[in-house]
Amino acid sequence: MDPLRELQGAVQAGRLTRREVLERAAALGLTAPVIASLLAACAGGQQATPTAAPAAQTPVAVPTPTQAAAATPQPQPITPAAQRGGGGTLRLLWWQAPTIINPHLAQGTKDFDASNIVLEALAYFDAEDKLVPRLAEEVPSVEKGTLDPEGRWVIWKLRKNVKWHDGQPFTAKDVKFTWEYVTDEKTTATTIASYRAIENVEIVDDHTVKVTFKQPNPAWFEPFVGGFGLILPEHILREYKGEKARNAPFNLKPIGTGPYKVVDFKPGDVVVYEINQDYWQEGKPYFDRVELKGGGDATSAARAVLQTGEADWSWNLQVEAQILLQLEKAGQGKLVIAPGPNAERIMINFADPNTEKDGARAEPDVPHPFLTNKKIREAIALAIRRDVIAEQLYGPAGQVTANNLNAPARFKHPDLKWEFNLEKAAKLLDEAGAVDTNNDGVREYNGKPLQILYQTSINPIRQRTQEIVKAELEKLGFKVELKSIDASVFFSSDPGNPDTYGHFYADIEMYTNGPSNPFPLNWARRYHSKEVARKANNWAGVNITRYQNPEMDKLLDTLATEMNPDKQTELFRQVNWISVTDVVEIPLVHRNAVSAATKNLTGYQPSTWASDVWNIGDWRRQ
Fold first, then answer.
1. What is the value of pTM for the model shown?
2. Is the domain of 375 the same as that of 483?
3. Quick one: 482 and 612 in the same domain?
4. I need a labelling partner for 302 at 20 to 30 A (CA). Which of 67, 206, 245, 523 fits?
5. What is the 3-state secondary structure (H, E, C) of 376-438?
6. pLDDT tens per residue, range 34-78
7. What is the CATH number of the domain that holds 241?
8. How far apart are the C-alpha atoms of 338 and 341, rounded to whole Å?
């Protein structure tokens, strides 16, 4: 049956709530008028007009200091749950298994998610893209005198009576220590880019910190907020800052302020949490125990929630659309679909993954033998059937895109287009001087064959994508070898593991990423030459392509201080333009966030900018 007609039938039969209608509409990419008619039917004939089509994503106004008071409403006092505990076990499935539970040393989303259950940030962007406090008492604002109108400083007032899991009080010392820990170059923290703008963190009193920036900072809310902002305990980690950071027992059994405590962790397998009976939010959490099981594959994770009921929540369901819809018909669970900021993309390695220097490969000062030629990179981009990948493999879970930065929507460059054209690609290779000298079907450039190692994590959709890309590249005269790596290894932060995406010991690689807040400078720094991943920083740099361009660096440095929203939009669009037209990364599919929940699970709030489990203390069983 046509998906739209199936949705219309479900609405008319009264089987869907308004929220479920919006989620399905987002997945199908429906327009605002169509969504309005569906909501009207859902409301029993009462006309309802959505503010925007969810799939298109409403542009988010960045809360600059002068707008903060109006743009960031203060939340109502937290309403206690009916009771703390008594909910039994909450079973979570992450088909990419966590390998570390210290977010500031992590590189994979799975590790940030595992950390979010036990650690907390000062604030988060919620499901409505509003900044809401957690360990902070309130969101800073110009009106309250806690935010500088020029973005040079911000004052965070912290909650009192919050305790770490070992009973020690949470204070301003912990916030300052987190900054010191992350910005110590010897720590090689993966989140360091989000904290470099800070000049100083001053402890005003036990529950107040003043963060002063080196220059006006439009992203004043970036440090200490969201997944990159989880606060660390000073009394636990003070001896493990710098070179000792990766040896801390904390990395496998952290002490946090969150609703759950880690009681057992088998890296690459499972994390077991138990309720924090002293959690500062009265009446929360509801579940007595949380089991986050990792590994396997996305299809099995979806089946465990939607069909067999073996789990309560499964994350990041990169599964073919028809399979997901078929599994949902079993009736055990439901798909949770929301607009996402992420894009599946192919990264180009500008360094040579086959030449070793000082015991490492793909070092930034050893250029790639042929991918540094722009015409060869352009030929690769022209040979990718993005429409086939989006429509046949992702369906309602994603839309083809020509932009590397897709959210907020105002930062997408309106003039970027994608094209599949093998004839044009072949001509570019000819112009580059890449020719088939041996008449064996493989072109050579400067005497070396155009041989590509193409790696990604193990996942059915990704392997099918690899096959589609390989088939077209080999028609052009490339020789392509495919490599699939277990997700727990590929997304590991282990500096001794050569198969991580950060090492990037391949010519091209593919995975999904996107920004973590509405001012996506932390994401865009992936193109800055200062952030190059290399042996010297334990491959923790966010610039894994080893791309270096003074023009791009200048754009990003300007964005770090630009306070005018209109100029910010233009600058981010330029970043988008260069990243695509210089073929640093090749965007394929703008993915929706697709998870699955058992039908009796409530309280979750999928957020564009936060972990699935960012508010796990609110989750309950109906």
1. 0.79
2. yes
3. no
4. 523
5. HHHHHHHCCCHHHHHHHHHHHHEEECCCCCCCCHHHCCCCCCCCCCHHHHHHHHHHHCCECCC
6. 444 454 445 443 333 222 222 222 233 334 543 433 334 333 344
7. 3.40.190.10
8. 10
